[in-house]
Specification:
Order of helices and strands: HHEHEHEEHHHHHHHHHHHH
Strand order of the largest sheet: 2-1-3-4
Number of helices: 16
Distance between the termini: 29 Å
Radius of gyration: 24 Å
Helix content: 55-70%
Number of domains: 2
Strand content: under 5%
Shape: elongated
Structural class: mainly alpha
């Protein structure tokens, strides 16, 4: 335990001396947060608006929807559905079988879908629907911002949670004799690579969590954006994002013999692409991917974190959190196991 602690202290000092870590993990996220806040500040001040729902007069859930304060009912006929949707008079149409028809994807459509899901669940459980308070899940007393561009900030948080990738690369460089002088020394000592790797992973995880905390404090107290209403699940997702980032960094560092700068470029490219697909650059990209290739959203680790942060904090829905944590855990195990295989079998003709 003492040796593990000593290794952690040493690697922590080494990472803090690394400009790449300081910039990408500490400085760059703050720059991006300021940029997004400046660009989208006016758009993020809109409150949750009334949702217009089309429905036939004889629909069995009509009386339920009438009791929801933020739902505005439009009783229409089948012939009017397409016209009303095209004109934007209604956000969605619910038929008698509780199928939802929409013109486009957005927050209002997502909330309607969540309400339908709750009603279906209540029916399966044979519980009286009229006793369920649907407004509790969607109208938050904390005056939560309800704008699709909040996705940008959740995606930014998801992206920087994976920035342990840079520390992970550095950890591998320290134990490979052909990449660093320190690695050459370690390989001629009795020190086990597995223990040094473990201490490096612990340090990388803790330091990136520290960097994440600075970003979250900056967003909350400097930018005055309250993005989190559910702390427990949000923290778990961010920690899993950090574990994935470190595991990805270790994998990139151990799977090839490229230079340190090339590996950093690989890490930046991967994280930026995954962030782009999760809607960080433009929320409509995420909407398009969810419509055209929904499987990509389910396997993209940054998209998993973004979607779940959005659902649990804006919609109070935790139904997909378990699945997301499981997928991220499988990614971490697979990456770390593969990395260990790469590192375990390495021998050097000369050092």
């Amino acid at each position: 335990m003492k040796r593990l602690f000593r290794n952690c202290v040493y690697q922590g000092k080494n990472l803090f001396r690394d400009f790449g870590f300081l910039f990408w993990s500490l400085i760059y996220p703050l720059i991006m947060a300021v940029f997004f806040y400046t660009a989208f500040n006016g758009m993020l001040d809109r409150e949750l608006e009334i949702i217009n729902v089309g429905i036939e007069s004889g629909n069995p859930i009509l009386y339920v929807l009438e009791e929801i304060d933020f739902i505005n009912i439009h009783e229409i006929t089948d012939d009017e559905i397409v016209e009303k949707l095209d004109n934007g008079e209604i956000d969605g149409y619910i038929d008698e079988d509780l199928n939802l028809a929409v013109k486009e994807s957005g927050i209002n459509q997502t909330i309607i879908k969540e309400i339908i899901g709750q009603i279906k669940q209540m029916k399966k459980l044979n519980r009286p629907i009229e006793k369920y308070d649907f407004s509790v899940n969607y109208i938050l007393g904390r005056n939560q911002k309800a704008n699709s561009l909040v996705i940008v900030f959740y995606s930014l948080i998801a992206m920087v949670s994976t920035y342990g990738v840079f520390a992970g690369i550095e950890v591998v460089n320290l134990i490979q004799a052909n990449l660093s002088n320190i690695g050459a020394r370690i390989n001629i000592t009795p020190l086990k690579k597995s223990k040094f790797l473990l201490s490096g992973v612990i340090v990388a995880l803790l330091l990136n969590l520290f960097a994440n905390s600075i970003l979250l404090i900056f967003i909350k107290y400097v930018l005055k954006l309250n993005l989190f209403s559910e702390i427990k699940y949000s923290a778990i997702l961010i920690i899993m994002g950090n574990l994935f980032g470190v595991a990805l960094g270790v994998f990139i560092g151990s799977s090839n013999k490229k230079s340190d700068s090339v590996k950093i470029i690989m890490a930046i490219t991967i994280t930026l692409f995954l962030s782009f697909a999760s809607g960080m650059m433009n929320p409509q990209i995420k909407v398009m991917i969810d419509e055209k290739a929904p499987i990509l959203g389910k396997i993209n680790p940054i998209s998993i974190i973004t979607n779940n942060l959005y659902r649990i904090n804006l919609l109070n829905s935790t139904k997909s959190v378990g699945e997301g944590i499981l997928i991220l855990s499988l990614y971490c195990v697979a990456l770390m196991f593969t990395s260990y295989i790469f590192l375990r079998g390495k021998n050097y003709d000369s050092i």
